[in-house]
Design goal:
This protein is mainly beta and about 170 residues long. About 15% of the residues lie in helices and about 35% in strands. The protein contains 1 helix and 20 strands. A hairpin with a 4-residue loop joins strand 19 (about 130-135) and strand 20 (about 140-145). It is globular.
């Protein structure tokens, strides 16, 4: 798996982290324990820091980057679906970012929120906690219910278990 330092900054990887062999991690990136970084993801901490909290999964083909002078912080128990572009300032704990979503610079997504698949979150948008959000541009549809918030948490745990299965069962073919 390609993990690179950049300008003296080396990625810091926590315990029990699954990183797919085709993922690329560069520079000032911190990935906390029990995370998974899936196939063909690129996480670039070259312009500023990227911080990823515990038990977060970044699914296939995602790009995570920063803006000059602004770090990207992704909370714990976050699920970022396939093919997302995350170029934001903050995603709170316990969120789902649906497949194909684009989150632009200086955005902030509150805790316990769901961003629907294909959503575009424009530059400098601040989204509140416990929200169901989707559309292009994004719109808050309603507040999330308690059972939906628990389902977000369980989704992250399921992906963590899948990552453990990959660590124990995937064998490279020659």
């Amino acid at each position: 798996m390609p993990i690179f330092s950049y300008r003296g900054k080396e990625p810091k990887i926590g315990k029990n982290v699954f990183i797919a062999p085709s993922a690329t991690i560069i520079g000032d990136v911190t990935i906390d324990d029990d995370c998974s970084i899936w196939h063909n993801c690129v996480i670039r901490g070259d312009l500023n820091a990227v911080r990823i909290g515990k038990c977060t999964n970044i699914q296939d083909n995602c790009t995570i980057h920063t803006m000059v002078g602004v770090a990207t912080e992704i909370g714990s128990y976050v699920t970022i679906g396939h093919n997302c572009v995350i170029h934001c300032n903050q995603i709170g704990d316990n969120c789902i970012i649906g497949m194909g979503t684009i989150v632009m610079g200086l955005c902030s997504i509150g805790t316990n929120s769901v961003i629907g698949a294909g959503t575009i979150v424009p530059h400098n948008v601040k989204l509140p906690d416990k929200s169901l959000i989707f559309g292009s541009p994004c719109r808050i549809k309603r507040a999330l219910h308690h059972d939906e918030i628990e389902a977000i948490h369980q989704a992250a745990i399921r992906y963590q278990k899948l990552a453990v299965s990959y660590q124990n069962n995937v064998v490279e073919m020659k």
